[in-house]
Design the sequence.
């Protein structure tokens, strides 16, 4: 059973077709980089995967569970699917520790001590062990994003989604976040990243998916697809992006 | 018997203010319960609940406070229900204040970025958990300056309770004015007392507002 | 004692109600017009005036906004005569309401005036316009548009607040209600009807304001 399966997924906002008959399969341990111009539907695709956005037709399956089924317990699903947003979305009134332990305590019913120990672990993994009691406002953008990643990791998900997680950061801060992403990839996490970071994609993604006008336009192994694009659209996109 | 308006009267009026404050506290408590309910209903995912809350607010905000006071005081007692000035006032102010507080608090709830809801939902939290741990704490911070501003309104509004014979500062002013025949002095004193209560609160609300805007 | 709802007595006095309504409307409209200009004057003093003006306006606004309207009215109607100035009920009510509305309007109007970006004014100055011309042609219209929603809300609040003048025996809608109540003893019905009339008034005012906005500002 594949980890993630999208079968003929379509979505529209009124008259606008955002996703147009998208089909995609992702196996455990893969690191998928989704690239494309703005408006190509890549962020929307990600948000549909954990049920933040509904779809009008098609099927999305995660570990055999149908995401778009009204009977599906989305909360249970979301315990296994972590998502990190472009604007971090940390809870400003909670400390780093509270941000990370909130869901484990409330959803996984862990004890505060248990949760805090796990928080310390994940913070160490993202290189911020000493910031455990800081407030989000005291951290830089890069640090906040790493905390956001730690927050998702604390739930021990099987799949992690990353929605342009470095786009809102100053250039000098993206490095620290990318290093954390590398670490997560090395641990064997199944990851789907919507990204503009071609360098990261080249080194750590197993597959690249190029989206255009709501469709999966081209996909394939990273090195090959990037150096030998088959379609004109991908060619022109890469020209624009890499130059 | 006309008596002179002296310091004794001034002190007496100052102490009368405690009834104003007591009524304000009661009114705020009642209004808070109603307001909180309305605010939560207004952002409910269920349309009929939103509509009912909205209707309530529209009706209450379109009628004068005096109507509610008289309705509850005179209207209910004629209908045979035992109503004294305290009960009528408490009911009227709760119903009236609740509508305004509901609007203020709803504004605060929706001022919390939708992305905060999304982050909470994505972590698997229930609606109630999101409200309690993520949204409410932030909304309270946003709501505090305008709520204090509303408190000032409420203190001033309690003066209308005098019209149904409720004995608070304004009513005592009327009574004192009647027995001293010095209405100007009396009402200036009454105005000063209200000012001394309200002005510090108004300033506090403004300072909080500034601090909050800086922090954002 | 069983109490049956009986609206007939109230509706029978419809002409009287209409008279009261007329007084409420007259009072409201006059207050809105005069209060607006008072607020405009104070807002201009606040924005464009010197320190003395600013202070005076501040004292005025803070005094009015931190004391109840009822007390302000009592001061004018009961208080002034003891200083030698006796005012008619309607006049005292009007003056008190205008002073009250002026204080609240000042802030709203000032916000509207200050919503005009400085760059607009600088553009006007660069074109050689006089301060008055800048005010008339560049500031007035956008400022009115900016302050319109808050101001119209304030006006509706004012209309509802005029009910307070009933306490100094001005024959407004609310006072008429009290009189009908004292004759018919139909307290519940009377005040329900009065409340509905105010509600209808508020709705109509909102509608009128919306229409004016569309016609004037959203061309």
Sequence:
């Amino acid at each position: 059973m594949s980890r993630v399966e999208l079968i003929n997924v379509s979505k529209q906002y009124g008259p606008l077709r955002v996703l147009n008959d998208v089909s995609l399969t992702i196996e455990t341990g893969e690191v998928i980089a989704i690239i494309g111009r703005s408006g190509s539907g890549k962020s929307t695709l990600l948000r549909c995967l954990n049920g933040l956005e509904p779809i009008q037709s098609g099927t999305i399956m995660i570990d055999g569970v149908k995401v778009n089924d009204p009977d599906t317990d989305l909360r249970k699903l979301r315990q296994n699917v972590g998502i990190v947003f472009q604007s971090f979305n940390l809870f400003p009134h909670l400390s780093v520790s509270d941000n990370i332990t909130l869901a484990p305590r409330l959803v996984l019913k862990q004890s505060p001590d248990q949760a805090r120990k796990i928080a310390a672990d994940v913070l160490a993994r993202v290189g911020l062990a000493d910031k455990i009691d800081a407030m989000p406002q005291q951290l830089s953008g890069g640090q906040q994003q790493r905390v956001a990643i730690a927050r998702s990791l604390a739930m021990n998900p099987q799949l992690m989604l990353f929605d342009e997680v470095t786009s809102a950061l100053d250039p000098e801060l993206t490095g620290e976040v990318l290093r954390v992403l590398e670490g997560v990839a090395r641990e064997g996490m199944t990851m789907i990243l919507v990204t503009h970071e071609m360098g990261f994609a080249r080194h750590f993604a197993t597959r690249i998916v190029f989206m255009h006008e709501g469709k999966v336009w081209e996909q394939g192994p990273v090195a090959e697809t990037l150096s030998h694009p088959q379609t004109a659209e991908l060619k022109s996109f890469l020209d624009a992006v890499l130059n | 018997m006309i008596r002179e308006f002296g310091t004794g009267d001034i002190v007496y009026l100052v102490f009368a203010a405690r009834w104003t404050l007591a009524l304000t506290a009661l009114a705020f408590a009642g209004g808070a319960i109603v307001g909180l309910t309305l605010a939560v209903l207004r952002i409910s995912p269920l349309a009929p609940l939103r509509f009912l809350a909205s209707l309530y607010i529209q009706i209450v905000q379109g009628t004068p406070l005096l109507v509610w006071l008289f309705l509850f005081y005179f209207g209910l007692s004629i209908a045979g229900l035992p109503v004294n000035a305290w009960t009528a006032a408490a009911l009227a102010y709760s119903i009236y204040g609740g509508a305004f507080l509901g609007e203020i608090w709803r504004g605060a709830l929706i001022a919390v970025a939708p992305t905060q809801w999304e982050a909470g939902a994505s972590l698997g939290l229930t609606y109630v958990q999101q409200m309690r741990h993520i949204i409410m704490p932030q909304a309270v911070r946003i709501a505090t300056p305008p709520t204090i501003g509303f408190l000032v309104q409420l203190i001033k509004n309690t003066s209308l309770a005098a019209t149904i014979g409720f004995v608070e500062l304004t009513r005592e002013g009327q009574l004192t004015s009647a027995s001293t025949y010095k209405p100007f002095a009396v009402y200036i004193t009454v105005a000063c007392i209200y000012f001394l209560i309200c002005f510090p609160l108004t300033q506090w609300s403004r300072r909080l507002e500034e601090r909050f805007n800086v922090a954002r | 004692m069983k109490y049956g709802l009986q609206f007939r007595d109230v509706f029978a006095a419809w002409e009287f109600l209409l008279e009261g309504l007329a007084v409420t409307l007259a009072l409201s409209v006059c207050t809105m017009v005069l209060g607006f200009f008072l607020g405009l004057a104070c807002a201009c003093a606040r924005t464009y005036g010197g320190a003395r003006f600013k202070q005076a306006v501040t004292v005025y606004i803070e005094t009015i906004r931190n004391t109840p309207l009822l007390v302000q009215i009592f001061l004018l109607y009961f208080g002034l005569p003891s200083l030698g100035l006796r005012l008619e009920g309607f006049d005292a009510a009007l003056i008190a309401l205008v002073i009250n509305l002026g204080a609240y309007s000042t802030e709203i109007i000032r916000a509207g005036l200050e919503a005009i970006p400085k760059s607009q004014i600088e553009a006007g100055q660069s074109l050689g316009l006089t301060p008055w011309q800048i005010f008339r042609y560049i500031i007035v219209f956008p400022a009115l548009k900016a302050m319109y929603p808050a101001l119209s809300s304030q006006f509706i609040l004012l209309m509802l607040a005029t009910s307070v003048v009933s306490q100094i025996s001005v024959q407004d809608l609310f006072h008429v209600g009290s009189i009908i109540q004292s004759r018919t003893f139909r307290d519940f019905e009377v005040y329900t009807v009065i409340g509905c009339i105010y509600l209808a008034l508020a709705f109509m005012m909102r509608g009128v304001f919306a229409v004016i906005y569309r016609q004037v500002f959203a061309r």
About this structure: The first helix of chain B runs from residue 7 to 42. Chain B touches chain A at residues 115-116, 118-126, 129, 133-134, 137-138, 141 (CB under 8 Å).
